[in-house]
């Protein structure tokens, strides 16, 4: 017996809705803290500045993925796309993996560096506000099979 595609359409709709690719973007109020640089730090183009991020590990995972961005506006979670990225960032510093519970580095993603280097921002007037933003991603939150959760924090930097 052949099945009509109209009979299978509801089944395909249910399967598509359950697919991990279609899970909703979840913004979490939980996030870590940018310890360094502090708000208002003045940074010039091509100059290294200290960077320390304390993750919140709200999901209690072995590793916490973060991404680090430079933006020319004060970011909110509304600025994140479905995969926790800023599509209009001034600069992307990279993706890093923070080991929790004393776990060491694994895979190609390294822990965040102790310093970041400000990209060329010479097109901005001296004294312009820019924002260093960190997106912390929680994955594998209990009870499992949960969508990724994104937490956002940022700090103000001033161009020199």
Quickly count the helices. Answer: 1
SSE string: HEEEEEEEEEE
End-to-end C-alpha gap: 74 Å
**Rg from Cα:** 20 Å
| Structural shape | globular
Annotated CATH architecture: Sandwich
| Helix residue percentage | under 10%
Largest sheet: 6 strands, mixed
Q: What share of the residues does DSSP label as strand, in percent? A: 35-45%
Secondary structure class reads mainly beta
Return the domain count: 1
Mean pLDDT: 84
CATH level 1 name: Mainly Beta
The stretches of 5 or more residues where confidence is low (pLDDT under 50) are 1-21
| Count of strand segments | 10
> Might you state the CATH topology name?
Immunoglobulin-like
Structure characterization notes:
Residues 1-18 form the signal peptide. It is a single chain. By secondary structure, the protein is mostly beta strands. It has one domain: Immunoglobulin-like (Sandwich), CATH 2.60.40. It has one helix at 5-18; strands at 26-27, 33-36, 41-43, 48-50, 52-54, 63-71, 91-99, 115-117, 129-138, 149-159. Strands 1, 3, 6, 7, 9 and 10 form a 6-stranded mixed β-sheet that branches. Strands 2-5 form a two-stranded antiparallel sheet. It starts with a helix and ends with a strand.
Quickly list its features:
mainly beta, Immunoglobulin-like, 6-stranded mixed β-sheet, two-stranded antiparallel sheet, 36% strand, disordered N terminus, signal
């Amino acid at each position: 017996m052949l099945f009509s595609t109209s009979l299978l359409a509801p089944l395909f709709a249910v399967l598509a809705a359950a697919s991990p690719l279609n899970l909703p973007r979840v913004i979490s109020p939980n996030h870590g803290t940018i310890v360094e640089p502090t708000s208002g730090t003045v940074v010039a183009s091509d100059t290294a500045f200290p960077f320390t991020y304390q993750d919140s590990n709200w999901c209690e995972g072995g590793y916490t993925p973060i991404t680090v961005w430079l933006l020319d506006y004060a970011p909110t979670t509304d600025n994140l796309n479905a995969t926790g990225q800023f599509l209009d960032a001034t600069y992307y510093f990279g993706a890093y993996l923070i080991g929790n519970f004393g776990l060491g580095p694994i895979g190609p993603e390294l822990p965040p560096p102790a310093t970041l280097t400000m990209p060329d921002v010479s097109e901005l007037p001296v004294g312009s506000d820019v924002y260093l933003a960190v997106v912390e991603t929680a994955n594998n939150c209990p009870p499992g099979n949960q969508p990724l959760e994104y937490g956002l924090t940022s700090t103000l930097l001033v161009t020199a």
